[in-house]
């Protein structure tokens, strides 16, 4: 504003003088009367201050000033001008300003009428002061143009300061730093600052104020300096007003913060804080100075946000917990942006989100474990089969076990929770890396808090990779599996998941329950991308064995057809050839000596002969406890016999076919004729002689237990509501879920495999490094192992000791600094 005003009134030296002699020669021939010349200039300068300069000849004024400077009268002229400015400021400008500096401005009464009167008086005072400054600056600019030559000579010699600079400095000294009036013991500057601060306080309370008037006042202070040097840091705005503004703002926001925490909810606090920051930004742009913007924002952030944000985040009922639970995206975004301003690491928000996810995750864990351990409901035990219109339709699928239900519920709830927080991260936290890492750690913590999470995740994947998942579309199954694999990244003990998944996949493929091999391969590709080749190598071996078994079966059938024996056997034989090192199968010694029916024995011997002709040096071990059969049984029911198609374990077929040749057999006789282990005989007989829906045999005496003296015979009165049905072992669970003892065995096996992995890792490290300190070896071993499981430090130490005993390593000579050397 000052520059613009000065530019409009600027008077420049004439380009050419209307005389024959050069200017310097003309002025040197005549003596100059200083007083007379000054009188001309003085009168003209008075007219300028009276804003009546339209009739002045500025060329003549410039000549007069030029003559005085040329005759070495510049210093006198400078002092005369300075005195003139003092006189104008003291008698005209200051008087006009003081007239409006009434005591009303400083009244602190909160009465409405007094407040309105005080505000009006303050605005009049500001208006007069800024108007007086603008006029003074314009007039000083015009006078400076007249004295241009004097300024150039004086400033080049370093003797004097520019007239314009002195004029503004005098305004500061004679007006702003003067007392407001005899009744007010404050300077005009202090009164101005008080009015500006009061006006800003009114605006913060919601009142409309005259922003251009405040802007004009602040510009005035920005154009005035503490000294004639006019250094940037000495602007009155920076040295006087801004510190007071920041102090007043600091007190205001400190009190407002305390009030909001006590009276408002978290949503109101966040919206208020963001509104305040925006208001201060606008105020600096439109009323104050843009240089103040970062400073006042820092005050708001410290006093309003930083001092209270932790309390606001944890406010009961309205804090971050409530926002998360109710998907309040806008509120969470406001909270995130506020915390981001005061803490780049977002610690209070991270802690609150982490705490809530842990709470919800532990609830999911507790619920799943309760489902897995509670006794089956009476409704499930007594539920009857749904009748079917067609008698030749298969029976409905068996209900899922509680373990599987618990696993599916657990994974689905975790995925639901993850989907919820992924959405919050994207929409509210702007996919901030710090928050995404916090979410990852939170999910890792509660997932790994549940010791059964690897088993649950494997059971979930197993359920949808089995043929029972065919009720869903391919896209739905793919999405479910993708989501399941996503959780793998959170598991610390990935090797335990590998153990379970390996076992479940082997059972799916062996029992023919896999949804399809293509889906199995796709699943392995997904896992390989997440976990690497080591995780999937054995599982890929399972698929290779199944495919080789199919090719071998087809080859055997062609071979039998050529021999003309395919029709003779009347048995559709589908062997599965399993590589011992690939399949997770324990072979009980007692299961190997089963005596098969002679029809089956012929096929068995025929296949062995064919297989060994193709593969020399190999040995086949038959595992009847892993097989299953489908057989037909015909019952004479009046004129039309009824044929049932019965599916069941191999042992079921072995026992049932005994009754083609025997009318009655005791338990002991059955065991002797089949050589099946007694516990397996008991389990099978419970399924085909005691279970109410599959009593293919009669038992005498009839009871729920099997005793060595019990007698069994063919049940010619057997009936079933379906022509095709399956005999399930009484104690068998449909998804082969582990018992507590089996789970301990699995963990023991995993620990043994971990020990071997640690052995191998230590040897590889030492072979490459030759010598390492104890701490270095521990650190490198943990880094290698943590991708598969969370290594136990004590186990690593035990394995190092074992390697020393086996002479793979030796201790270093310096016992004070433990180290190890590799022994080649």
Keywords:
single chain, 824 residues, mainly alpha, 5 helical Cullin repeat like, 3-stranded mixed sheet, 33 helices, 9 strands, disordered N terminus
Structural overview:
Belongs to the cullin family. Residues 377-395 have a biased composition (Basic and acidic residues). Residues 452-689 form the Cullin family profile domain. The chain is mainly alpha-helical and 824 residues long. The protein folds into 6 domains: 18-171, 5 helical Cullin repeat like (Up-down Bundle); 249-342, no CATH class; 347-375 and 394-531, 5 helical Cullin repeat like (Up-down Bundle), CATH 1.20.1310.10; 550-622, no CATH class; 625-726, Cullin, Chain C, Domain 2 (Ribosomal Protein S5, domain 2), CATH 3.30.230; 740-822, Arc Repressor Mutant, subunit A (Orthogonal Bundle). The protein is built from 33 helices and 9 strands. It has a 3-stranded mixed sheet with strand order 1-2-6. Strands 3-5-4 form a 3-stranded antiparallel sheet. α23 runs parallel beside α25.
């Amino acid at each position: 504003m000052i520059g613009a005003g000065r530019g409009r009134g600027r008077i420049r030296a004439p380009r050419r003088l209307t005389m024959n002699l050069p200017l310097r020669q003309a002025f040197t021939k005549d003596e100059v009367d200083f007083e007379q010349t000054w009188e001309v200039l003085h009168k003209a300068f008075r007219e300028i201050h009276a804003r009546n300069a339209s009739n002045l000849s500025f060329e003549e004024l410039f000549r007069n000033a030029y003559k005085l400077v040329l005759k070495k009268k510049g210093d006198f002229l400078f002092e005369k001008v300075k005195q003139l400015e003092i006189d104008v400021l003291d008698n005209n400008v200051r008087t006009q300003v003081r007239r409006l500096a009434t005591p009303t401005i400083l009244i602190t009464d909160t009465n409405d009428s007094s407040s309105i009167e005080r505000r009006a008086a303050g605005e009049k005072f500001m208006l007069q002061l800024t108007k007086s400054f603008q006029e003074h600056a314009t007039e000083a600019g015009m006078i400076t143009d007249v004295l241009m030559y004097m300024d150039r000579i004086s400033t080049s010699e370093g003797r004097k300061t520019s007239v314009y600079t002195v004029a503004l400095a005098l305004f500061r000294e004679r007006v702003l730093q003067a007392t407001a009036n005899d009744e007010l013991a404050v300077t005009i500057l202090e009164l101005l600052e008080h009015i500006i601060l009061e006006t800003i306080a009114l605006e913060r309370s919601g009142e409309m104020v005259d922003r251009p008037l405040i802007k004009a006042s602040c510009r005035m202070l920005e154009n005035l300096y503490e000294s004639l040097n006019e250094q940037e840091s000495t602007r009155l705005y920076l040295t006087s007003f801004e510190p007071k503004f920041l102090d007043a703002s600091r007190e205001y926001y400190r009190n407002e913060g305390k009030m909001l925490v006590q009276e408002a909810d978290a949503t109101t606090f966040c919206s208020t804080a963001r509104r305040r920051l925006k208001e201060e930004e606008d105020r600096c742009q439109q009323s104050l100075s843009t240089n103040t913007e970062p400073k006042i924002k820092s005050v708001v952030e410290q006093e309003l946000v930083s001092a209270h944000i932790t309390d606001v985040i944890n406010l009961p009922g309205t804090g971050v917990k409530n926002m998360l639970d109710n998907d309040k995206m806008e509120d969470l975004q406001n909270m995130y942006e506020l915390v981001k301003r005061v803490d780049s690491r977002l610690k209070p928000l991270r802690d609150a989100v982490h705490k809530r996810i842990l709470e919800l995750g532990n609830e999911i864990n507790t619920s799943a474990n309760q489902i897995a351990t509670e006794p089956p409901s009476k409704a499930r035990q007594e539920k009857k089969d749904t009748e079917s219109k067609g008698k030749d339709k298969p029976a409905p699928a068996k209900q899922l076990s509680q373990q599987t239900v618990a696993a599916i519920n657990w994974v689905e709830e975790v995925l639901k929770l993850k989907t919820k927080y992924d959405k919050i991260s994207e929409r509210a936290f702007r996919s901030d890396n710090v928050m995404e890492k916090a979410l990852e750690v939170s999910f890792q913590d509660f997932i790994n808090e549940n010791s059964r999470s690897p088993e649950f995740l494997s059971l979930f994947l197993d359920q949808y990779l089995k043929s029972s998942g065919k009720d869903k579309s391919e896209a739905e199954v793919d999405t479910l599996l993708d989501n399941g694999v996503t959780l793998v990244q959170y598991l610390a003990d990935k090797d335990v998941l590998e153990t379970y998944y390996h076992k479940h996949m082997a059972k799916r493929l062996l029992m023919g329950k896999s949804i399809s091999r293509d889906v199995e391969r796709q699943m392995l590709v997904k896992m390989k991308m997440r976990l690497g080749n080591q995780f999937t190598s054995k599982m890929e071996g399972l698929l290779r064995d199944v495919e080789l078994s199919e090719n071998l079966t087809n080859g055997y059938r062609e071979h039998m057809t050529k021999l003309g024996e395919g029709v003779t056997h009347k048995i559709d034989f589908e062997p599965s050839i399993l590589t011992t090192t690939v399949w997770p199968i324990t072979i009980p010694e007692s299961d190997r000596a089963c005596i098969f029916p002679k029809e089956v024995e012929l096929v068995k011997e025929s296949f062995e002969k064919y297989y060994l002709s193709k593969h020399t040096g190999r040995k086949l071990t038959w595992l009847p406890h892993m097989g299953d059969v489908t057989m037909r049984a015909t019952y004479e029911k009046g004129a039309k016999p009824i044929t049932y198609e019965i599916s069941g374990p191999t042992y079921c077929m072995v026992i049932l076919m005994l009754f083609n040749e025997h009318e009655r057999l005791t338990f002991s006789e059955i065991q002797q004729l089949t050589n099946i282990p007694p516990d397996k005989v008991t389990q099978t007989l419970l399924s085909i002689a005691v279970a109410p829906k599959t009593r293919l045999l009669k038992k005498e005496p009839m009871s729920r237990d099997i005793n060595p003296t019990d007698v069994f015979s063919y049940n010619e009165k057997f009936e079933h509501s379906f022509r095709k049905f399956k005999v399930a072992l009484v104690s068998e669970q449909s998804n082969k879920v582990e018992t507590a003892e089996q789970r301990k065995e699995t963990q023991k096996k995993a620990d043994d495999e971990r020990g071997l992995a640690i052995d191998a890792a230590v040897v590889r490290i030492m072979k490459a490094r030759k010598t390492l300190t104890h701490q270095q070896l521990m650190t490198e071993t943990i880094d290698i192992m943590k991708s598969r499981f969370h290594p136990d430090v004590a186990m690593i130490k035990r394995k190092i000791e074992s390697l020393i005993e086996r002479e793979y390593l030796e201790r270093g000579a310096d016992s004070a600094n433990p180290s190890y050397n590799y022994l080649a």
